[in-house]
Amino acid sequence: MEGNAEAESSHEAAESPEMLLWERSRVLREENTAARGGEWGDWLIVLAERLRRDREEQATRLARSESSPEMLEFCKLRDYTESTHTGEKRKVTRLRFYLHDFIGGDSPTVWAVASCNLTDVLPSKFGKFLVLDNLVTSGPGLDSPEVGRMQGTVGQADLHERALVMVLNLVFTKGEYEGSTLSILGRNPLTHEVREVSIVGGTAAFRMATGYILTSTYFKDPAGVCNVYEYDAVVYHTDRNVLLSHRR
């Protein structure tokens, strides 16, 4: 199978535009039966060289990291181009917020509602199922301005390591996005320093939302009362202002 793939790759390389032009120019130069043939050969060599440079530049651009400023600008341009093509404007919104996970104390906001025979046997706590309604703030401190609530369910769904399956809604209760929501779905391996989950939907300001969230543990409470988690979200969504203008 690998030998066939290599042969097909070599065949494709031989059929590339610049290779065809080089071959054509070589034939014309060898024939050299007329001055015009030689002129065409020279022109084809120049064109083949230009194609080669363009291909190398394109490969360099594609290899750039998405975290670079140039790639971020490219992503914005790409998003605008797609929205123009479909007749619908889309926006990219970046958010950072902090989740306060009250797992103990007098007023916990996370409650275990189900488990299985393996939950107390396996270190991964497999089968444990919880519901939550956690405070979300703009800063890591509990006295930071409220952003909203993280509501939904999480479950320990890995037999081998501590990993959550998350089905959550971020409900914005204050500020610019009050009344909007983001729907979050994904796997959260708790032992990893940085975890990634998907944004699969939204409402109001975040209609048609897609994107991702990178989350990490900001503070692990040794007393087991409240842990704090940092969330960095990148959200692609429709422009609510454009939608409102269409209704008028």
From TrEMBL:
Keywords: Apoplast, Secreted
GO biological process, one term: phenylpropanoid biosynthetic process
Main location: secreted
GO CC, any one term: apoplast
Signal peptide interval: none
Record bears the keyword Lyase: no
Keyword match Ribosomal protein: no
Subcellular location(s) of the protein: Secreted, Extracellular space, Apoplast
Pfam families in UniProt: Dirigent
Function: Dirigent proteins impart stereoselectivity on the phenoxy radical-coupling reaction, yielding optically active lignans from two molecules of coniferyl alcohol in the biosynthesis of lignans, flavonolignans, and alkaloids and thus plays a central role in plant secondary metabolism.
Self-association state and partner proteins as the record states: Homodimer.
Recorded family membership: Belongs to the plant dirigent protein family.
Protein name according to UniProt: Dirigent protein
Originating species: Salvia splendens (Scarlet sage)
